[in-house]
Structure formats: C-alpha cells, structure tokens
Write a structure and sequence with these properties.
The protein is of the alpha+beta class. The chain contains 5 helices and 12 strands. Helix 1 runs antiparallel to helix 2.
Length: about 230
C-alpha cells in the first residue's frame, strides 16, 4: 500500500465520520430542520464521492466514447445516452438506459480492488415501475435508479436504516441518484447485506405530488454487490 493510498483512505474515513457526526447531531434537532440538513448531507456526500457534476445534460456528465462502445455491444442499451454517475473504490461508474425501462452499469478499470465490469438492472417496461441498484464500496456507496413514468419529477427514497425518506429529482432519461449517508451504509454493512438492503424502497411523484411509480418491495439487489464480471478496458 502506497503512502498516497494511505493518505486517501484517511481522508475518506474523516469525511465519512464527519457526515456521520453531522447526521447524529441533526437527530437531536427538530424534525423539520433535520430533514433539511440531511438532504444537504446527501448532496455533500454525492459531491465528495464524485457522483454528481454539472454538464450540458443538466446533471450527469456524458460517458466517454470507449464506454459508450461497451454499452453499444449490449442488445437494447441506449449507448449514446451513457453517463458518468459516480466512483466506487476508485472505479468510475457509468450508466446507460435500456429499451425495457431499466439500465446497465459499467464499473471502469482501476488497479485498486473493487467492483468492475458490466451488469444490468432490468425493468418490465411498466410506466409505474421504479428500478434501482445499490453500488457499495469501502469508500461509500450510492443508489442509482430509473423511473418509468415520463411525468415523474421527484423520487422519495427510503434508505436502509433511515427513519425518513430522502427526496431527489428525476433527471435525464428518468435517472435519479442518491449517495448513501454513513449511517445507512453502516447499517447495511453491519449485518447480512442483502437482507438489510431489502428495506430500500422508492416512490415517484409528478409535479403535482401525485404518485406515478413505485419500486418493488421487498427490494432485491439485481446484481451481486461485489460484482466481479468482466468487460473490455479502454
């Protein structure tokens, strides 16, 4: 392990602990203020993990050409709409929508161990369906999902181990993204991962607050958390 790796690990550990301390502190405040603060922490965690960035699309950065080529080799995947969504254990993560209403993820190559390769989250194509995948790593994690309804403007996501849902906007091609707060990640990793992920749920609403989609319950992780499938490198 190099000194740079040790320094990076220490920095990430401090960031995660700071987020956890902030969440615990917010729980001692009023419910209204707590929800506002936790929503801010989700944004902060997303930015720290590299999961969000401004782009011409309005939220996500377009995937590079070599990643779009990988998506393009899969039947029914809209490769030209591939986007960069985050970083898991130094593996840059990309997503592309699929024709059935689901999406595929590609974990880019890196010398550090972690998830890699290609995996897809299917949908049955119903407009009222919300599909999701949880990406987990030693440095943190996030939920990436897609809403079937074109009328959806926001999604309320109840994360494992949390008492209240987080609200996030529906972005390009129906995608939404939430970083896992440290408390939620700790809850998941302190027990049977798949059993604890089962409590994850999402409800999509339109601009008037009407429900236009829900995730299947209980949630079932569509791909192994430590996905080690293979795919071409650049």
């Amino acid at each position: 392990m190099t000194q740079a790796t040790i320094d990076r690990t220490a920095q990430l550990t401090k960031v995660r602990q700071d987020l956890l301390d902030a969440i615990e502190g917010d729980r001692r405040r009023s419910r209204h203020r707590r929800r506002r603060r936790v929503a801010g922490l989700v944004v902060a965690a997303t930015l720290v993990s590299g999961s969000a960035a401004g782009a011409a699309t309005g939220f996500f950065v377009a995937a590079p050409g070599w990643v779009k080529d990988i998506f393009g080799a899969q039947d029914g995947v809209q490769a030209n709409d591939g986007i960069r969504v985050g970083v898991i254990d130094d593996h840059v993560t990309y997503a592309a929508p699929s024709d059935d209403g689901g999406f595929c993820l590609y974990y880019g190559p890196d010398t550090r161990s972690g998830p890699n390769g290609l995996g897809c989250t299917p949908s049955d194509g119903r407009d009222d369906q919300v599909v999701m995948t949880v990406a987990l790593g030693h440095d943190g994690g996030f939920v990436i999902g897609r809403v079937g309804s074109a009328d959806a403007t926001s999604v309320d996501v109840l994360l494992p181990g949390m008492d209240e849902p987080f609200t996030t906007s529906v972005r390009d091609d129906g995608f939404f993204l939430l970083a896992l707060p440290a408390a939620s990640e700790r809850f998941v990793m302190d027990g049977d991962v798949f059993e604890r992920l089962a409590s994850l749920s999402a409800t999509a609403t339109d601009a008037h607050g009407a429900i236009v989609g829900r995730s299947a319950t209980p949630y079932a992780q569509p791909n192994p958390v430590d996905d080690a499938s293979s795919a071409p490198s650049p």
